[in-house]
Amino acid sequence: MKTIYIDTTDNKEITVGLYIDDKQFISKKQLDKQKSQIVLSLINELLHNHKLNLHDIDAIEVNSGPGSFTGVRVGISVANTLSFSLGIPVNGINVAEKDKVVEATY
Known about the structure:
Blueprint: E1 2-7, E2 13-20, E3 23-30, H1 35-49, E4 59-62, H2 69-86, H3 95-98
Helix pairs in contact: 1-2
């Protein structure tokens, strides 16, 4: 199973992980520009490094908070969008099938 992990709750750092079966690969980046651009580039970089693409991913996990108000919304928005477009679950909810989304915890 291949899972992407997204954590944008920290104001100073973004964490994106790729879990392939029992192995984990984590990438962190200090904030120096918009969070959404960093999240997407980190996901792309992790997938590229492991010769995968988005369609190879089975699930997404996102930290839904608490944390930075804007940060939490960015991470959840990216996760819900990927879930809907790829037809895979985010935090156990398949957005495309259940007509629900993962919501922030503040």
